[in-house]
Amino acid sequence: MTVTRSILLFALAALLEIGGAWLVWQGVREHRGWLWIGLGVVGLGLYGFVATLQPDANFGRILAAYGGVFVAGSLVWSMVADGFRPDRYDVVGALICLVGVGVIMYAPR
Fold first, then answer.
1. pLDDT digits (tens, 9 = 90+) for 15-36
2. CA dihedral 103, 107, 47, 25 (to 10 degrees)
3. In sequence order, what are the residues at sequence separation of 6 or more whose Cβ sits closer than 8 angstroms to the Cβ of residue 63?
4. What would the 3-class secondary structure string for the chain be?
5. pLDDT tens for residues 31-80?
6. How far apart are CA 37 and CA 26, in angstroms?
7. CB atoms < 10 A from the CB of 84, how many?
8. What are phi and psi of 103, to 5 degrees?
9. How far is CA 100 from CA 10, 31, 42, 72, in A?
């Protein structure tokens, strides 16, 4: 159950961080205004909180592993929100990152 919880927390963290950054981007770059920026800042703040809920107590390990989730999640977000079409190198790179997440977080110690 710990691995499942960890994966769900990584997914929630990605949703909050990527979504928050996207809202800030939309507010600033697409001129959607301060409400979008403010909601983005809230999302980014919640991301920081969710990251602390991981079962592993090592900040560096959590943040390093989350980097791989962020890479893959960013591509998925851009496909859904912006119609981005990743090429095969984007997909291969994201898969490599997710393998790294598995090695960093879930390898036996």
1. 999 999 999 999 999 999 999 9
2. 10
3. 51
4. CHHHHHHHHHHHHHHHHHHHHHHHHHHHHCCCCHHHHHHHHHHHHHHHHHHCCCCCCCHHHHHHHHHHHHHHHHHHHHHHHHCCCCCHHHHHHHHHHHHHHHHHHHCCC
5. 999 999 999 999 999 999 999 999 998 999 999 999 999 999 999 999 99
6. 8
7. 13
8. -65, -45
9. 14, 37, 29, 12
The residue with tokens 């963290």 is 13
Instruction: Provide the strand spans (E) within the chain.
Output: none
Structure tokens at 33: 């205004």
